[in-house]
Amino acid sequence: MAEIKAKAQIEAKVILVLSEDEARALYNITIYGVKPFTSWFYKNLGKHYLQPFHEGVVSLFDTVFKEMPKELNRIDEARKAFKKN
């Protein structure tokens, strides 16, 4: 007899809209790297708040560090093109 098991999952996504200054600030935070950031955070502010979300912090840093430069470069290029005219 076949057995079927069901597993329900809930996935939530949050869309965050940043100003250019906020985006540049977030990107520059990630330049330090996730290990130095979390080490400093845990040492100075404790592990209680952030450690349960450590994998999310790693993923956030990775995504911002990889994706944000593309968007910031587009902004820079648009600004250059606008100044030429």
Q: What's the shape? A: flat
Radius of gyration: 19 Å
Sequence of secondary-structure elements: HHH
Largest sheet: none
Output the structural class: mainly alpha
Number of strands: 0
Tell me what you see in this structure:
By secondary structure, this protein is mainly α. It has one domain. It contains 3 helices and no strands. Helix 1 crosses helix 3. The longest helix is centred in the last third of the chain and has 31 residues, at 54-84. It is flat and about 75 Å long.
Descriptive tags:
single chain; mainly alpha; about 80 residues; 3 helices; flat
List the helices and strands and how they pair.
Layout: H1 20-31, H2 34-45, H3 54-84
